[in-house]
Write a structure and sequence with these properties.
The protein has five helices and five strands; from the N terminus they run βααβββαβαα. It is of the alpha+beta class and 157 residues long. It holds the Pfam family Acetyltransf_1.
Length: 157
Amino acid sequence: MMTLREATEEDIPLILQFVKELAMYEHLENEVVATPQLMRYWIFEQKKASVLFCCHDGLEVGFALYFYNYSTWKGCCGIYIEDLYVQKAYRGKGFGKGLITRIAQIANKEGCARVEWACLDWNQSSIDFYKSLGAKPMEDWSVFRLTGLALHSFSEN
């Protein structure tokens, strides 16, 4: 039986565990530098993101972390899903769909224009899953990122 619940501050170790599991799945485990202190500050004190867990018989088996963005073209907010992860044993059983459905319900209830996320090009099983939901890949768009030393150097100009 699947249930969904919002994360609380006490869930920070579990959130970080799932973030690390997702990073391993994406072959990016060396990229995770988040700490419990940073998560507490940004998610729970500053309220810059929200986390949902999907549970099987009360056991957390996946999560989604999302936040609001703003579309100048639409003139309203949207929701961006930063992370969506379900443990391997529970994939294909509706948990990921349940998380996205709940986020879509939140978006609709709050009048958001869209829900969007990024997916690694090699992750065909996820791409197929997202397309099965009716999601469309963005054509002619590339993601750009300033981070680390490049961000610091640029911001000093």
